[in-house]
Amino acid sequence: MDAKIKILQLSREKDKERKFLFMDWEYVEKEGGIDLSLYDTVYEMDFSSKSDNVNGFLEDVFRKFNVSRPSDFKGHSLSVSDVIYVEGSGYYFCDSYGFVKCKDENKKKEMKLKIKVFQIDPDRDKKRVSYARWSVLQKVGGLDFSIYDEVYSGEFSCEADSVMGFLESVFEEFNVGKRPEDYNGHSLSVSDIVYVDGHGYFYCDSRGFLKIDKRDILSEAAKQLQDIRNDIVAISEKLNSLRKAEKTISNL
After folding, report:
1. Residue numbers of the domain that contains 176
2. Is residue 218 part of a domain?
3. Residues 228 and 162 grouped into a single domain
């Protein structure tokens, strides 16, 4: 099998936090799916393989760019998270075991999803974490979802090639675009949280969006529920005290 190939590796400029470098397909999918716009093409060549199928062809490419890399190849040894483009076949993600074909090949498509926007209530922000970067938030105890209010819930549609691309469009629309009339918050900014139906919660950081572990949200909900339960117990105890006092008075 002969075909023109391209080797794509994550760009240090575009993936500044190195979030996806050397991460497997399962992780990438959990974080919203592959975004080929984060990659740079680091090498192109005509490649020849004795294999007559794509999988064998890709294995030969992998071997070539690990064991006997071309002298003018400037990237790192082919590894997990890298992508190989095979002309006439498509883009393939290098996984921990074998390769996974990228479904959309970075082509934008219409995405229409329900979203919710959460912003911090200044009166409940005791730690003053409004507009705080994620790294700063971790230094003061992590995310406290109980200080957030839902300021918008509705459907949003745009053309995007991934969930991250979708979120970037949400960010742009809720900043410089025409925000919905029923939107009750300020311009979307750092420390805000966006929920995307079917994909989860995302923290708006200074360099894009970070997916929030669902357990962080659920743990805060559990805390709020426990607070409500404690309030109910306290009210019940007060009512019992009042009943006893009332009974004592009636016996006088």
Report:
1. 109-212
2. no
3. no
pLDDT band at 232 (very low <50, low <70, confident <90, very high): confident
Give the chain as a 3 state SS string: CEEEEEEEEECCCCCCCCCCCCCCHHHHHHCCCCCHHHEEEEEEEEEECCCCCHHHHHHHHHHHHHHCCCCCCCCCCCCCCCEEEECCCEEEEECCCCEEECCCCCCCEEEEEEEEEEEECHHHCCCCCCCCCHHHHHHCCCCCHHHEEEEEEEEEEEEECCHHHHHHHHHHHCCCCCCCCCCCCCCCCCCCEEEECCCEEEEEECCEEEECCHHHHHHHHHHHHHHHHHHHHHHHHHHHHHHHHHHHHHCC
Give the integer Cα–Cα distance in Å for 164 and 24.
Answer: 17
Q: What is the pLDDT of residues 7-53, one digit of tens each?
A: 999 988 877 777 888 899 999 888 888 888 888 999 999 999 988 88
Q: Please count the residues of the chain.
A: 252
Domain membership of residue 217 (yes or no) is no
pLDDT at 216: 65
| 90 and 70 assigned to the same domain | yes
Which among 31, 66, 101 is the end of a domain?
101
67-77 pLDDT, tens digit per residue, is 999 999 989 99
Picking from 48, 81, 101, the residue at the C-terminal end of a domain is 101
Contact 160, 209 (CB under 8 A): no
Whether residue 146 sits in one domain with residue 190: yes
Is position 201 within any domain?
yes
- Rounded to an integer, what distance in angstroms lies between the CA atom of residue 227 and that of residue 218? 14
Give yes or no: residues 77 and 32 share one domain.
Answer: yes
